Amino acid sequence: MKLAIVVGAMLSIVQATNRQLSQDVIGKFRQVAGKYSNSTALGGSELADVRKNATGLIGNFHHDIILIKEDFMLDAILQESGMHFQIANQPFTVDRTCLNFLNTSLEMDINLAGVGFTNCISRVDELFNGFKNQFYNRIGAQDALMGELRILDVFRGENVFYTPQNIIAKLDLKWEALDSVPESVSSSSHQALINLKVSLEGLRTAYIECMTSSEQLLRRSIDLLKMQFSDMCLGESIIVPE
Hints:
86% of the residues lie in helices and 0% in strands.
């Protein structure tokens, strides 16, 4: 009889301890849930800031590219206009057929320069899309990481009354894991932004070099036309009015 009483008392103590652990699960979960909310908010904020900065970088990049294209295009038009002026204002003593040949060659040279300009910007477009996709894929991976964060799964396969200690152990692991989430997201997303910035700067430089090469070819072609103008057509240099 005494043994039964002792065993019963011990079971009551164990049961009371387990019930306390069951209640501890709720308290622990609330703590982890609070940290979960903070971590996801911080991570989401970091990603939003990086996306905003990337949007600015991409916008500025396109603004720069079109300004560069405009500068080279206007320079080409200026060269063409100068040559056209010389041809159009020659005295009637200059062979018109020869001048017409020069006009045809000039038109061909300008069109070829346009082909070069198109090749340059098409290459930029191709590389830009690659860099942009790399950036958003990396940011998307961080988004996916944020989306995979979960804490309710600590209850899966457990019994809050029978194995509360297992749930508490899982919650402790969740707590530790959540510590690294904002830092991990911040580090990875900011590195992706840096990579995008460096890539776009390099692409801008490459575009200028490509356009310069095409523009130099046009200049050489027009210089040749000027020689043909004076040596073959016997044209006279006309002062361009200011």
